[in-house]
Amino acid sequence: MESPLTPPLSKERMAYMALQWRQFQAGLPVSPADVRPMILASWERCRKRKLPGDAMMLCPIDAAALKRATTLNLDLVKSAKHLMDKLVRSIHLSKSVVTLVDTAGLVLHASARSQDLENVPYGVPGRSCDEATIGTNGMGLCIIEKRPVHVIASEHYNASLHYLSCAAAPIRNVAGELIGALNLAINTESFHQHTLGLVEAASHAIEEHLRLRSLVRNQKVILELLDDGVLVLARDGSIVNSNRQACAMLGLDGSPPAGENIRAFLPDDETLRAILTDRIPFYDREIAFQLPEGRLSCALSCAPFGDDGVLLTLREGRRMRKYAARVAGAKAVYTFENIIGNAAPLHEALRLARAASQSETTTLLLGESGTGKELFAQAIHNAGNRRKGPFVVVNCGALPRNLVQSELFGYVAGAFSGALKEGSPGKFELADGGTLFLDEIGEMPLEAQVSLLRLLQESEVTRLGGKQAKRIDVRIIAATNKDLSAAVRNNAFRGDLYYRLNVLTISIPPLRRREGDVAVLARVFLDKFAATLRKPRLRLSREAMAALEAHHWPGNVRELENCIERLVNIAPDERIDIADLPQDIMADMARGPLGAPGEAAMSLKRIQKALILETLRETGGNFRRTSSILNISRTTLYAKIKQYGITADTFRAS
What we know:
24 helices, five-stranded antiparallel β-sheet, alpha/beta, 42% helix
């Protein structure tokens, strides 16, 4: 490793260096011991390029090109400018120029006293000073070597620069990549052996400034990426920094105006004292900010830092509740396309449900267990304007009576023994901005019915143990398999709540009243479970299908789905016959439709009707083929069709 500088710079030494330069220019040998290898290698590259040794080629670029280069290296220029000016002032020497170049050797900025700038021909922004343009020089050599260098007097390849000496140091970005060089050019008689160290120190300072700029920028990016609002406060509460989310939450235009103080938004003296006086850190404290357009409910966290600073984070209440609902799986997945069937009563229920989806009206779903009340509720939610909001389900019949209030309406800290110390939102708050599905609402205790009625009337909820009501925006869909009007008469359900719920009522028909839908649903379930169990496609025999259609299905669609799942699991081959059916269906066939012994004849008639219906459906209403398959005459078929009130035209293709 050669010495960065070879002192002393005596006149004899300078004269001998000049002699070596002249010999090289004349094509004579030079002494390797007297010309540094780095300089000799540079001279040889210049000779190979046929650069002149006595005429300077500055090659300036136009203003537009300089502006583009400066913009491309804006961070470098901004970080270097004030340090370059400081370096010029600190050395107190005349005819010195500090230049900044990019990796192509283009001068981006120069610092010097005005009368000194022209002392260095290449020290003007927009001029090229790479080795290929002006020959051996400090900046060009530094870019090639990627390390600190100095070029003394006649070590320059071009004679017009021999009166100068220069020291240059590389500048790297935070990734360690070379992005430019800093150079100090000065008359040789003023050059000192410590000049290079001075330039290196300035170069390191620029790199540190670049690192800090990058760090600040990254911090700003991170702050802006946060979903939370972030405020930085001074000791007196003035807002000194913020991100866009915080400004949007507080209704500030872009950034806080000078002198804006947190006291203007937070009238809660106890919280202000904790933040500014006591400087007590806390996490997710529920606070209401007072804004010109109303109140902002949010969770506030406080983190004091340093001697005076305070960092606040704001999480909007509704957004937090939506996140909590999403994490808890509060999402509707079914749509109207998932409700399968062709029966007229089902189509009427779907017509009303689609109408309900286009309004905010409280909706009451009536139907037996297993008819698909939650399926309807999810479809209504997903077809409406709240589809992007949460869909929260509450089974009122499954809630412990002593926890109904806290589960539905939430509670504040210390509301009861065993309560979470930070309190907890209830189901209504979690459903804010979406839909709350109250299943089995007929089982809701009377004391909870009072709070529900108040919520429906005021759109406000008060947590258990709390004093402050919160406004929420929730669409209510309720469901029950009970006769609520009878419950009102028996004082088991509040009449005022019933009339509030009974605005848009939809009756979902039981499966036994959906003629033809058993066969449709059975085929859908067969395909579904066969695919799940990776079995080949299965089919039901006509007798088995007729028996299914003749069954009363007290458990409705849920019972049919469970039955088909069982059949798919135990099916010995691709055909499911009547003998494969569950025992309760076989026993029902023997007992009759009312479950009374001795009525087998009535049950056989229902099976016979179902068998005729299934065969007509299979043949598209063709009487000849139907009678052949059933092995009865067409006259007998006509008589049975008339007896059972079957309309054969409905099975014929249009």
